[in-house]
Write a structure and sequence with these properties.
The chain is an alpha/beta fold and 239 residues long. It has one domain: Rossmann fold (3-Layer(aba) Sandwich). The protein is 35% helix and 17% strand. It is built from 9 helices and 7 strands, in the order αββααβαβαααβαββα. The strands form 2 sheets. Strands 3-4-5-6-7 form a 5-stranded mixed β-sheet, sandwiched between helices. Strands 1-2 form a two-stranded antiparallel ribbon. It is globular and about 60 Å long. The protein starts with 8 loop residues before the first helix and ends with a helix.
């Protein structure tokens, strides 16, 4: 840290739950605040780490309406790097012509069938919208660096390195990222290291404190308890 953070109120309830060994609740849809953390690394590189605290439904609304709200437009324009958090085990790949050949559709009635885009298509569309919004803002800088954190890594049961797991689980999203960013940062993240219940206390977690849990999986596959590594790598890539 290179000074005091702002707007920590949005995190207080979550921190209280974690201190008690319980899972934190979801953010209300109406919440939309930025917490700004001034940071500096060992080489003296300074940056403002901006954590937007918002209800997850806001992202779904952006994709469904194909409109970026003004608050998000400001975030897109002003950032030198974006950090995208994806929970692999909650994404569905969906069928395609390889897993479900067209010959299998013979005789199937398509009347009154509702078509929904896959999670992969929605993630790619979100990234396309962010890139378009950034490029259309008369911004002459290169596009922001991109970091992808595969969250709740402890629940995935994956043994491969993060980039391989990303490509295997979400091949379309991985291909889009690789084609638009020369050296994207792909890492795993287990912020809690274990699943917590919102009602039952984990006494070991409460006694040791949340600061003694959590790890990141580096691009090489090595684990580290230093949760600041993704930020450090993005700072390093931005110089």
């Amino acid at each position: 840290m290179n000074g005091a953070a702002t707007n920590l109120e949005a995190f207080e309830a979550a921190l209280e739950s974690l201190d008690e060994g319980r899972a934190a609740g979801h953010t209300a849809r109406s919440v939309n605040v930025d917490s700004v953390w001034p940071v500096i690394d060992a080489e003296g590189r300074e940056a403002d780490l901006i954590w937007p605290e918002y209800g997850g439904e806001q992202i779904k609304s952006v994709i469904d309406s194909r409109r970026i709200p003004e608050a998000w437009q400001r975030r897109v324009d002003q950032a030198n790097a974006w950090l995208l958090l994806i929970r692999l085990q909650q994404t569905s790949v969906g069928d395609d012509m390889f897993s479900k050949p067209l010959a299998g559709l013979k005789g199937v009635s398509l009347e009154n069938s509702e078509v929904h885009p896959s999670d992969q298509a929605r993630l790619v569309e979100l990234l396309q919208m962010l890139l378009f919004a950034y490029r259309s803002s008369a911004n002459l800088r290169r596009i922001p660096q991109l970091g992808v954190l595969l969250t709740c890594w402890d629940e995935t049961g994956l043994a491969k390195i993060p980039s391989e797991s990303f490509e295997e689980r979400l091949p379309l999203v991985s291909a889009f990222v690789q084609s638009n960013w020369r050296q994207p940062l792909i890492m795993g993240l287990s912020a809690l290291e274990r699943p917590l219940s919102p009602t039952t206390r984990d006494m070991e977690y409460a006694s040791k404190g949340p600061e003694h849990f959590g790890y990141v999986v580096q691009p090489s596959g090595a684990k580290s308890s230093d949760l600041t590594l993704p930020v450090y790598h993005l700072l390093d890539a931005g110089t």
